[in-house]
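tool_call: predict_structure(chain=1)
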Amino acid sequence: MAAKKAKKPARKALPQVSIGIIGGSGLYDLPGFSKLGEQSLATPFGKPSGPYRIFEVDGVKVAFLARHGAGHVITPGEL
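tool_result:
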């Protein structure tokens, strides 16, 4: 008898974004951008530096990832 495969937990759907920005530290509250939320993701390359922050500006959804993590906790040599 074949073993049953465990079901993966349902993932929250990501909002569709049009632009992705990988930026430096300190760009967490961008002028004119309305924060919609954050989303953590797993990738085939490992865990990103932190959650993706989802913003909207002029009706366009933008995802932002802080290159060194919030508070600059990842050194350039660790990237």
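agent: Strands lie at 19-23, 34-39, 52-57, 60-66. Proceeding to next step.
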